[in-house]
Structures are given as C-alpha cells and as structure tokens.
Amino acid sequence: MIRQAASSLLIYTICCCRYYYYYSLLPRGALAFTTSSPLRTKNYHFPPSESSASVLDGSSSDTMTTDSTTSSTGITIPHLSPTTLANLVDYTISFSAANGLQVQQKSERSATSTTSSSYITAPISLLPQAYPHGQFQHGLALSTPFNLLVDRISRNGKFLQETLKGVRDVDEFTGMLLTLYEAIYLSDGHSEQHAKGADRLGILRSDYMLHCSQAAENEYSIKQVELNTIASSFAGLASSVAKLHSFLTRRLGEEGLQEFLDVNERAVMGDSSDDIVDDDGERGVPQSLAMIRLPAAMAVAYDRYCARFNIGSSNNNGENKSDAAVIKPVILFVVQPNETNTVDQRLLEFALWDNHEIPVVRMSLGEIHERVTLDEASGRLSIQNDDQGDNGGAVQQEVAVVYFRAGYAPTDYPSGYNTADGSGIEWLARERLERGSAAKCPNLGYHLAGTKKVQQELARRGAVEQFFEGDEGDVAAQIRTAFAGLYSLGADANEEDMEAVKDVLFNDAKGQYVLKPQREGGGYNYYGENLANKLKENCTITVDDDGNNDVSLSPDLSEFILMERLFPPQQRAILLRNGQVEGTGMSISELGCFGAIVSSGDGEVVHNEYAGFLLRTKFSGVDEGGVASGFATLSSLYLC
Fold first, then answer.
1. Which of 358, 380, 416, 520 is the most buried (most CB within 10 A)?
2. Nearest to 49 by CA among 608, 620, 580, 556
3. In whole angstroms, what is the distance from residue 47 CA to residue 162 CA?
C-alpha cells in the first residue's frame, strides 16, 4: 500500500515538474469577474511568481483546506485520489494545448529579434461546479429580454441623461461617453445621420450569482451582479472549458471522480438533489453555443451593411467600386495594445471565417486614429494600407462592423480627454468610428446602458416597466426577478437608499453590501471595513434633537452605487494556474449568459437570441472576481 501511494505521488510530481517551465509565466491578469462574494477574509491575488508551494504553505489563506501540501510533493483532496488528480492535470494540460485553451504571453524583445509570442494554459477550474438546472435555464431565458432592454435604453436619450447627470460631474470617463452620445445621437446635425442610421449590434453578457436569502434556507435563485454591454469576453475560452470538463467527467467519472462531483452537488442542492437532466437528456456538463451564435449575429450585421451599400456580403466577394483597390469588407476588432487574451478573441475571428468567410482586422484605438478614415458624404469607414492594388491605387479595407474589445476603461485612452487640440487621439478615434455607417458593437447608447448607475436606476419601481408597456408587462416582471438590492448614492438618493447607507454606518452591516464605481473588469469595488470607511469619509453625520442620526452624502459618492451582497453556495474547487494546481478549497461561482441582438437604426429588431454561457470560479475568501484581473478562473457547470 505504501509503495502504491509513493508511486502515485511520484506520477503527480513528475506531471507538475514536466509542465512547470512552460506554464510558470502565466499572468495574473489573464481572467476576471466582478462579483459580490460572501466571505471577506484575505484577498488571494497572488503575484505571477508565486507557485503552488507558496500559495499552499498556509500563510496566504484563511479558507483553503489545511489537509494539503505543496504541489511539488503532492496535494491531498477529499474524495479524490492522487492518481485521479494526476490524471486530471495531465489530461487538462494536454487538452488545453490541443484545443487552444490558453492565453498569450509576450516574450522579451531582444536586440537581435522581434517580439514573439508564446501561449500558456489559461487559469481554469480543474472540474465543473454543481449548478441547479432550473436556475441555469432561468438565466438563459433572461438573455433575450435583457437584450431588448439594452436596445431600448440606448434610444432613450432623456433617460440616460437624467440617470447619469450626477455621475458625469464626478466621473470624467462616463461624462465623456455621455457627451459624445449627446453630440452624435441627440443632435440634428446632418453629419450625424450616418451613425443614427447604422445598425446596432449587441454582444451582451448578464452575470449572475446564486443567492439564498436568510428566510429561504438552501433555496437558491439567480441574482444579477452586472450587465456587460462592451467587450463581453471569454466566450471562446469558456466554450473550450465546457468541452474539457465534459470530456473529463465522462472519461474519469467511473475512475474515482464521481464521488467528488456528488459531494459538491449535495453542497448546492441539499436534500432536493434529484435526477433533473440537461437539454441533451443527460446530467452533466452542457455545451456552450457561443462560438456558433456570436459569429452568426456578427454575420447578420455584416450582411445587412453589405446589402445596404450593395457590396459583397459574407461568402460573396464584392465588386471593385472605386479607383483604389477595394477588397472584401472587414469586421474591425478594436483591441488593447499588448493584449494577452488574444486566443479568446482569435477563436471568434476564426469562427467568423470558417462559418461565414468574413475577414477580421485587429487594431488599437491609436492605430485607428492613424489609419482609419471616414467619408463624411457616405459614412463609410476605410482602413488605409500602404500596399498597392492591381491598379496601382492604395488598398483600402472597408469596415462593415466595429467590434470593441477595448475602450471600456479610462486606461484605454492614455492620451487624455482633450480632443479640441487633437491630443486625445483615442477619443478622436472612438468618435470617428461612432460617426460612421458601420454597425457598432456596442454603440455609445449600448455602452452607457451597461453602467452601474443605469443598473441601479432600473431596480427602482416602474423603471423597467417604462420600456415594456402594454402586452409586454410580463417581460418586465421576468427581468425584475433577477434584481438584487441596488441603492443610489447620488443627489437622487431616496429614503430607501439612505436606509441602506445608515445600515452600513450604524448597524454594522458593512458585510451585507458592496460599493461599486462605474468601472468594468474587477478590482475596483469596496467591501467590509473599506466600504464603511469610504462612506464615512464622504458622509456628514449629524444628530437631531431626538438623538436620531442624519446623514448627508458627498457629491463624490455620485459615481458609486451600493449593492446588496450576494451569498452563493460554497463547494470545493481545484484551481489550476500556470499549468499547476494552485490550491483547493471552498469556492463560489458566477454564471454569465451571453445574448446577441441586431437592430436597425430606426429600432427594428432583426436578430435576438441567447448565445452561450461561461462560469467563473474563485476561492470563497476572495472579494473580487475578475478573470482578466487575475482574481478568478474559468470553469463550467455540472447540472443537477
């Protein structure tokens, strides 16, 4: 028995060492989601150089299991044998290499060579997480209603202006977005008609956590964490994770894996665990449709643009209609310089070509400012290239669709906000793209509809209902089932909002809320003592004659919202980073449901459907949840 255990341990150790060199460089900023997690202990935001040994030595964690040792000598996981664990790691790393489940790592530039790229396994959960089938289906069903809601909000300038008027004064980034929106979509200028008439493409992702109220023990329902309307990422990698987990659970299910899955199922479902099945008639890991449906929606927008201008559509080359050599229109991916999540983006690019023969060009906002031109008469956007065509003219690539995977944060506009003197080149590029006739994903209206302040405003009584009147009242009610408690900290704060603030300040309820700014990507939220201190620093507290506390909010709080903290079920996870087991412990997860919508300039919805899912998992003691910001890992669901 001792010899067998030693042999299993040796197999695992060799497996870890074999891949350590290639996977030890994985950046922490490879994956990210912003959530409201239940336990606030320590923030496990490990630096890139930390290996599993330093993560698991007991100095970095309150919530990880204490029955584990360093990965160099093996790790003990309840209900999972060392041999099964070694097989899981080996299969996972091999599958990731074979199927592009990776992120890009830039190598250093040397004096004798150009910059090259290498790829390493993405941060992932080694196994899927148990998830209630009914709540998964609920999330899927909410996709199309939320798509419609975003589209209708984007066209209601008065609602956006009124909702964001307090934010724009204290948040320069949101203020700039709103100013551009007003100049382009709310003005009567002839030059803005191209943008107003352009199609709108939404690739949205609504993120949910299972939440159990104190009055309903072990009865979980999904509550919305946030609605992402720009750069909704990881559709490609998440689809690959689902395929990996489907393979692992079927291949190793009878070799010591099923007990681990069953224990997690009981942790989530309790005594209600039954034989509910998924859409394929089998319990287990569902497959995401993201790499089919997201490219399909983009192809709809692409073909409509080509039909509008009578040029070649997908699977059909266009004619040369100008003196310059014009090639097939493209979809322009707006990306960040030095992007490391290129594989996720490339998977979408490859699917666009394989399924629809649509070419993609990738450019940063700085490059767009230099090389993309706008024809003021027609609204056409063209990429100017140095190459010459057969007729000797410069090659131009017309842009049919603009797809933003950048532009969602102030750091994407490093040249600043001054566009009057021409120095704010990234904002000038964003404005030029917006004013063109190409479909935008998203346009400025969709982008603003995804702000935290709009999310909070929609939670007010009657706010959603104004966008779904008459026979559509049931749609509004369906959307409202997903709302958590959301409270304003601006000049529009009402009695209910102030009661939430007082709850934090005077009732020691800081653990029941999260303070959120108007930012995407994770790492910006306030929790616990940090939350309470932020409020105290920006509130004036007085006591009236009756001894009651009165609170006045500083205008600086207008850029924040206060959100009810969500308490999802905890279950065991094994997280893999740098190709090694980072650790094991109790975890929580967040479900993201993709939706795709295409609508015309005058509001006709021509395409609207659910478009896939992702799951992100983190240790339960981690407050933030972003994959791209390095707090979480990609995972998938095991339906039960």
1. 358
2. 580
3. 42
Residue 285 to residue 248: CA distance in whole angstroms: 10
Tokens representing 141 are: 């069903």
The helix or strand, by DSSP H or E, that contains position 321, with its residue range, turns out to be none
Instruction: Round to whole Å and give the CA distance between 125 and 120.
Output: 15
CATH architecture of the domain with residue range 486-565: 2-Layer Sandwich (3.30)
Provide the angle, in degrees to the nearest 10, between the axes of the packed helices 143-154 and 133-141. 30
Q: Taking each helix axis from N to C terminus, what angle separates 235-252 and 290-308, rounded to the nearest 10 degrees?
A: 150
Q: Running DSSP on this structure, what letter comes out for residue 224?
A: E
Which residues line the annotated binding site for substrate? 345, 616
Per-residue pLDDT reduced to its tens digit, 480-537? 999 999 999 999 999 999 999 999 999 999 899 999 998 876 668 999 999 999 999 9
Output the average pLDDT for the chain: 84
199 and 436 Cβ atoms separated by less than 8 Å: no
**What does the pLDDT look like over 160-173, one tens digit per residue?**
999 999 999 999 99
Q: Which positions make up the binding site?
A: 345, 452, 516-525, 527, 590, 616, 618, 624
In total, the chain counts a number of residues equal to 640
330 contacts 349 by C-beta, under 8 angstroms: no
Give CA–CA dist 33/623, Å, rounded: 10
pLDDT, position 117: 79
Residue positions in the annotated binding site for Mg(2+)? 520
Taking alpha carbons only, the member of 552, 549, 557, 568 closest to residue 487 is 557
Mean pLDDT value of segment 282-296: 94
The Cα-based distances of 514 to 486, 524, 570 in angstroms read 10, 11, 19
